[in-house]
Design brief:
The protein is rod-shaped and about 80 Å long. It has helices at residues 2-19, 21-32, 36-46, 49-80, 127-131, 137-140; strands at residues 84-88, 95-99, 109-110, 117-118. The strands form two sheets. A two-stranded antiparallel ribbon has the order 1-2. It has a two-stranded antiparallel sheet with strand order 3-4. Helix content is 56%, strand content 10%. The chain has 146 residues and is mostly helical.
Length: 146
């Protein structure tokens, strides 16, 4: 989700800069020292401003499409995520059905039978990935875990 926000923000910023180049480029030329070539370039860009605005709106539309397309896919994936997992203690073999958290990883779990504190195995992100019958919700959805 973070990558999507970055792509949306970057394409929106690029679209804004592209569409307004005929306005800010002369000010940049004056600030840099009045480069005549840069000013001439920006005045030539002015006749293409309508095309640049269309391209800019295309980038903004693309970022909206990306954002809502990903949210739609995430919503569909959340319907197929299983939240119940049978966690089995490796020390005593006791099993219990637990509801997995969807917004965080569970790093510790105390067995109700032998009171042993379970921690994830090396390479696993949480106790459900190590000792549960079902992997945690982020892994099921195809995302990286905590």
């Amino acid at each position: 989700m973070k990558d999507l926000k970055v792509v949306s923000a970057a394409s929106g910023l690029f679209a804004f800069l592209l569409a307004t180049a005929c306005c800010w480029l002369p000010f940049l030329a004056v600030a840099v020292g009045g480069a005549a070539g840069l000013t001439t370039f920006s005045t030539r860009l002015e006749k293409y401003s309508s095309i640049l605005f269309l391209v800019a709106f295309g980038f903004v539309g693309y970022s909206f499409w990306l954002f809502f397309q990903k949210r739609k896919k995430a919503k569909n994936l959340s319907k197929s995520v299983v939240l119940q997992s049978v966690i089995t203690c490796p020390a005593c073999g006791f099993s219990k059905t637990e509801t997995m958290p969807t917004d965080a990883c569970q790093f510790f779990y105390e067995c109700e039978n032998c009171k042993k504190m379970l921690r994830p195995k090396p390479g696993d992100c949480c106790v459900f990935c190590s000792f549960g019958s079902v992997k945690c919700p982020p892994i099921q959805a195809g995302n990286a875990c905590c």
